[in-house]
Amino acid sequence: MNEKLINKENLPKHIAIIMDGNGRWAKSKGKLRIFGHENGTKSVREVVEASAEIGIENLTLYAFSTENWKRPKLEVDTLMKLLVSSLRKELHTLVDNDIRLNAIGKLDALPEKAHQELLEVIQKTRNNKRMTLTLALSYGSREEIKNAVKQLASKVKNNLMSLDDIDDTVINKHLYTHDLPDVDLLIRTSGEHRISNFLLWQIAYAELYFTEVLWPDFKKEHLFQAIENYQNRERRFGKTSEQLN
Ligand code: FPP
Fold first, then answer.
1. Which domains does the chain have, with CATH numbers?
2. How many other C-beta atoms are found inside a 10 Å radius of the C-beta of residue 92?
3. Pocket of ligand 1, candidates 22, 33, 79, 122: which has the most ligand atoms within 8 Å of its Cβ, to mutate?
4. pTM exceeding 0.90
5. Cβ(104)–Cβ(144) under 8 Å?
6. Tens digit of each residue's pLDDT (9 = 90 or more) over 107-147
7. Whose Cα sits closest to atom 5 in ligand 1?
8. Which terminus has fewer CB within 10 Å in the chain: N or C?
């Protein structure tokens, strides 16, 4: 798949990816699951660079869900270590490419070291403009929505807001993703056809793209394939084809 086949006038503004299949990739090679995660970081790097290069403004990666804490301790510890080492290693890539790092999720649930490293890179890249890279960490969409509902209920209860003020825009403002546009294209690798509690509100009108490719094998050309596929779809947002034309 060639980058030239992509129409730069019709890029998704926000791509979100459920990076799945690291474990199966490692198993198929007779290795431990953590070997899959290590190689998954190479795909993260490649996809981040390719996205910035072609002009994607927002890329959101599901790196760790609230449910992932239930995995074996060795695997959780490795994922947290990979997060810290990747943040350290890639800070200069983010700076050089004018990429802002952002994070969504229950960040204070992360180990102290990972949390601090993350905040530091977010701080150091906060004025970058080319692309926002959001890592979903200890993220769960229902929890995000529950938090928003609680904040809104409390504001109404304390007369800071009336019930009629609550519309889509106000709800958006109370989500972790308050400064991001809706997702246009959601990609899930490894042949699973599930959303797994990822950005439930934000994907209301997203195009969904599923590929059999396992995450450590997902490279630039697979991203371009997904974007080309997206560009061949008609997004109607509830209207008819005729109304769009
Ligand atoms: C899913 O594969 C992947 C994850 C739970 C973690 C994704 C993490 C990385 C790609 C590396 C670290 C990320 C950053 C941003 C540094 P799986 O383990 O569920 O695979 P399986 O379904 O084959 O078991």
1. 12-139+182-233 (3.40.1180.10)
2. 9
3. 22
4. yes
5. yes
6. 999 999 999 999 999 999 999 999 999 999 999 999 999 99
7. 64
8. C
